[in-house]
Design a protein that fits this description.
Layout: E1 6-9, H1 13-24, E2 29-32, H2 36-46, E3 52-55, H3 58-63, E4 70-73, H4 79-88, E5 97-100, H5 106-118, E6 122-129, H6 131-137, E7 140-145, H7 147-160, E8 163-164, E9 167-168, E10 170-174, H8 178-206, H9 212-222, H10 230-240, H11 263-274, H12 279-291, H13 294-303, H14 315-348, H15 354-360, H16 372-381, H17 394-415, H18 420-432, H19 439-450
Parallel strand pairs: 1-2, 1-4, 2-3, 4-5, 5-6, 7-10
Antiparallel strand pairs: 6-7, 8-9
The structure holds nicotinamide 8-bromo-adenine dinucleotide phosphate (NBP).
Amino acid sequence: MSASDIGVIGLAVMGQNLALNLESRGYSVTVYNRTAERTEAFAESRTAGKRIHPTYDLESFVASLETPRKILMMVKAGEATDALMEQLLPLLDAGDVLVDGGNAHYADTERRLAQAHTCGILYLGAGISGGEAGALHGPAIMAGGCREAYIVVGPMLEAVAAQGVGGACCAFLGPASAGHYVKMVHNGIEYAIMQALAEAYDLMRRVLGMSGQGAAEVFAEWNRGPLASYLVEITASILRYSDEESGRPLVEMILDTAAQKGTGKWSSQSALDLGTPAPSIAAAVFARIVSSLKGERGEAEALLPGPEPAADVDRSELLDALRSATLLAVVIAYAQGMRQLRDASKERGYGLDLSEVARVWTAGCIIRSQLLTPIAEAFKAEPELPYLLLAEPFRTMWIDHHQGLRRTLARAHEAGIPVPVMSSSLNVADAYRTARLPANLLQAQRDFFGAHTYRRVDRAGSFHTEWESP
Ligand code: NBP
């Protein structure tokens, strides 16, 4: 057997499909998985006639690769990656390229980059989005870390990536943990959009009494307009899907508790650390947390009454408002994510080109949508754009749709239906466009109880008042 072009470690969903994708682009691939049964099953079921070579120990895996070796790790993020690197690094030579394609926390990526650097290994932290189908047919790849590593392995990653606006949806985005940071914020945006779509579905169901099929038709129609996106498209497909056993829409048979693996939480934690306003992403994380309190929610429903459902709802008027609300919630999710990337880039020295980030997201990834093309154009025209809503066509979208968002929220609150992402989207946008907020009172309160001082509107300096003095 001649030496393989690249090696893939970790043969769960992502690793298997990326190995197949690499092979389909003309590369020979050696694969390895900690548990041999998984490698055997993959080799037997999916690699016949392909230039994919299974190995059963790391030494054979490493020995089978052409030098400088190119290795893609697709293992569970966290301790698994550390455990694997512990075993792998001693087997590699200076100049070999190691890519972590998992959802690593950006701080871990920086630590591993330094660890690899001490051995002369060229390290890349690459966020990969697209799930199972994306991994097989073309994901979006957000790479960061060692630029020399990208020079060696970048052409392979670009070959397997989705083709979007302006070419492959794969790019070297910056040094250190830039790639994994961008992927983390991508996932934060994903959380907010998914929750906004779930809120729209809930309003269709509970205020308008719509069936799964009816709601599916509305999402399908939205998918033909500015909301056209992967997540809206799959929502329509999900709502149409019928459960064979019960004959009802499958979605109605699914338990209403959502899991989370951490990237949305990390994105919100980092937003708080940076002091960047990303409340809808945090609201989406909290919504999943509340959903997990299934038992408590069941008991509280009987104890805490809400309003009676309104009888006089004009269906087409509410659906119109709901489309506006969903569109703005999605736009504001992107706006917050881009703002977080802008702030993180400054603080962490990533030097991100936000237009390029949006371009990489135009295909292959879970948040791909028609909106990403004008987002990329907006940041191309103004790289330092502070907030997406200030640029066209998003400013006009705000003008045309904010009343619909307000009407939707009024209806939702009247009906007692939670809409955390939609409402935090309106709150953050309303706060951003308000020249004078009530934070003057906050300053005064802080000074009252803690002598924290305050600043005045009419002269410079810090002031303190003895508020309880006569
Ligand atoms: P998982 O995240 O489920 O990880 C399973 C893989 O990790 C298996 O190959 C497993 O080997 C391996 N592994 C573990 Br667990 N501990 C290990 C250790 N100590 N040493 C070596 N290998 C170990 O797989 P996945 O869903 O394919 O995702 C892979 C990476 O891609 C993750 O970081 C994930 O966050 C990221 N990602 C996933 C998706 C997605 O849609 N699934 C999308 C984007 C990114 P074993 O067979 O021996 O247990």
